[in-house]
Amino acid sequence: MKVSLALKWVVASLLIESFMLSLMVMKNVNQLEDDLITQTKIRLNEQKILLQSALAAPLVQMDYATINSILKETKALPNIDYLIVVDNKNNCIASLEWSDCKNLPLIETDPFSKESLEDKRYDTSIPIAISYQKLGVVYLGLSTKFYIDAKKDMITRSVLIAIIELILSAILLITISKWITKNLVRLTNMANEISRGNYSQRVSLSDSSEETSRLETSLNIMAMSIEKNIKDLEISYTEQKKLSEELKHQLAKNHEQDLLLEHQSRMAALGEMLTNIAHQWRQPLNAISVLSSSLKLKNDYQLLKENDINDTTEKVINYAKYLSDTIDDFRNFIKNDSVKENFSIQKCFDQASDIVALNLSNQEIKIEVLESEEIFINGITNELAQVFINILNNAKDVLLEKEIDPKFIQVKFYKEDEKIYI
User: What pTM did the predictor assign?
Assistant: First the structure.
């Protein structure tokens, strides 16, 4: 199952955002812990000062009733679990919510240590003294449940906010990605259809930008040009076929076998031309499809630059022109032009080799033209070019049949004793 690039982009963005939100939640929890520790220490210092000042005189006077009253008032404060007052000989004077005065609680140094959080209580002590003379100690149990509940509440609220933010971000990212890639997907589909041979394909982008509109226009013009050239070739083929039928009928009457053989050779050449056209077009059409797909990829990953669309449009237009020029070259080649003229044998061979070059290249056959003098001849260019094509095709068949490796064809032109040798 293939996953679209737009979906990958959305998932990657959400993963990054989830990571950032996790860091934010951790930071908030750590900040909450620091704040609660600070507040707890402040409260402990306040209780220490209050209890020291309130219990000093009753301890000196051994006023147990006042001590118990002070402990009850202190116990009424939030998060106080128990209170114990002992004298300087560790004799229990008074206690609240602590039944066994013989087993006093172990003093803990950190309100939020592992032990304090497990039993949900921080055990500490406050010395009572006057003029550096110790009178006793107050043992105090501070509940840490408020910290656990606050931390849990902070995590719950942060996770809930993060989930809501991720859902909203996903909706926004999906909407934006669909809006951005909609037109590029249409253009890519059109290019793919053209590369498959559907030259009647057109695209219409209703809400496209200026750059995308230019690319749309270029692709439509290219498709129209290709379709027109294909129709011209079909018409030419139809005319050639019709002429063939006429010639056959005429040959049946006049027994002009030479004329029939010549025309049949022409039809074979036309078939060869169509095969070479298919080879010549495959690369530029695939290149157009690759350019369109590349443009879409850059857009999906937000790598699209200002000049990317202009560069792609220019390349597509150049490929379209190349296709149009190729059709013109082949059409000129199959013209029934019997006018003699002076022409260069070298250039005529170059034109012929260009037509079959891609076919030879696919078979890993190289053409090597040895250094030759430029020779001119008076005759019909197309007829000599057809001879060259036949020679090259025959050479290709021999190389493939005998499995010669490496495969190459050497050509040389020279003139000797008023004769031309190839």
Answer: 0.36
